């Protein structure tokens, strides 16, 4: 029984944890939510299968109702995994490079810039010269430009929000 498990957890940790219930009726999960969840000392992700969980139990223990999109799955296990993966990478020490999480898509309201790896030339296409220049300011400028271009092309909604924030309105 969900409530019995919850009560046992509360007794063990000495306080009521934040409980996120994965449901299509919830608020759509986003990076801001992930950042908020990552600050929690104790976070429980609850998910049902097929028909879900008794409403009385949800009313008693759930603090957040969260969806990963406007579609229905057979259960909340996959959405829970999405939330766990997104939140865990924001917890200090999970990623080897602490800067990684800060430069990913959505952290500054833009999609991430294109990534390039070795070899320097792949199928006749070369890594952009600016990335090989060693000039950090130029690299950052290029990354921002590419992030803006990519966001404008693929996510005009995010681009418009980014422009509003930049103009201060």
* Number of E strands: 5
Oligomer: single chain
Terminal residue distance? 49 Å
Provide the β-strand percentage band.
Answer: 5-15%
Protein model, in words:
The structure is a single chain. The chain is an alpha/beta fold. Helix content is 47%, strand content 14%. It has eight helices and five strands. The strands form two sheets. It has a three-stranded parallel beta sheet, covered by helices on one side. The chain has a two-stranded antiparallel sheet with strand order 4-5. Helix 2 (31-38) crosses helix 4 (77-88) and helix 7 packs across helix 8. The model has no long low-confidence stretch (mean pLDDT 91).
Write the SSE topology.
Blueprint: H1 2-13, E1 18-28, H2 31-38, E2 43-47, H3 55-61, E3 64-67, H4 77-88, H5 98-102, E4 121-122, E5 125-126, H6 129-132, H7 136-154, H8 156-167
Parallel strand pairs: 1-2, 1-3
Antiparallel strand pairs: 4-5
Helix pairs in contact: 2-4, 7-8
Overview in brief:
This protein has 169 residues and is α/β, with parallel strands linked by helices. It contains eight helices and five strands, in the order αβαβαβααββααα. The model has no long low-confidence stretch (mean pLDDT 91).
